[in-house]
Amino acid sequence: MSTQTPDLQGFAFYGDGHENSKQAVKVIQTGLWIGAVLAGLFGGMILAWPGATLLVIAVLLGLYFLIRGLVRLVVGIFAPGLTAGGRVLSIVLGILLIVVGIFAMRNPGTSLELLGILIGLSWILDGIATLIESGRAASRGFAIFAGIIGIVAGIVMLFVPLGGVAVLTMVAGIFLIALAIIQVIGAIVIGIQAKKAGI
Q1: What pTM was computed for the model?
Q2: What is the pLDDT of residue 7?
Q3: Which of 142, 125, 114, 146 is nearest to 72 (CA)?
């Protein structure tokens, strides 16, 4: 079995070596699949709910950020192969997403502007973290794309005036569906490259 795995050892916050590459593949693939399911599920529900109220959107997005934050937190604490920097980044981001999720669900009557700011900041931070985590690996293209989409969606939420719940619903739903597709592709690409590398 080959131990030359340059395409997979380049991910930031994962140690070098064949064993760490195996652990990195498992962690990254699992995270991508979970993220894809969450994004697709909540994105689909948001877009399929015609005439949704701010209460409904706030609760759905709050649940999404809460679950995504919990996943980030669990990965940061328990995932094998992560460096100290990787754990800190994942844990801090996880806590931030959990706080945003809880706030959105506990205060669903908040204004569109405030909800848009919270969602925008969360997507920007998550996108930046994704870019950082992509490191220098040859398979980082999908992660970079996902990170850029997150940052762009966050900027849209922050700086483009929201015309009401309908606009918020469309932006959030489309972004989540796009993110789900990218994550599915990413998980498949990682698996193919892992097999080629003999992991």
Answers
A1: 0.70
A2: 45
A3: 125
